[in-house]
Amino acid sequence: MNKLLSQDDLATRWGVTIRTIENWRKEGIITPCKGIPAIRFTEQHILDIEGVKLEKVSPLMYRKLEIDLEKTKQENEKLKGILAKITAEASQIYK
Question: What is the gyration radius of the CA atoms in the chain, in angstroms?
Fold first, then answer.
């Protein structure tokens, strides 16, 4: 779950006053979360503003990668079997 930060949290984090945070919010420099009763900011939004990029893989993408990896392993095994048959037949021809 994405951590939510209050205006006070941001003021402390950035070493500014709450009034400065309020002004930045009103100017659109920082954007609070929508749909919750208090003014809160997502940690990811703040990290983006600070220039910190966290490259996370979503659970859905992770699952897709696992499935793709399993399919690739199965295909690899199938191709190994085909190569083994070809090698065996080729060895019979050259005897």
Answer: 27
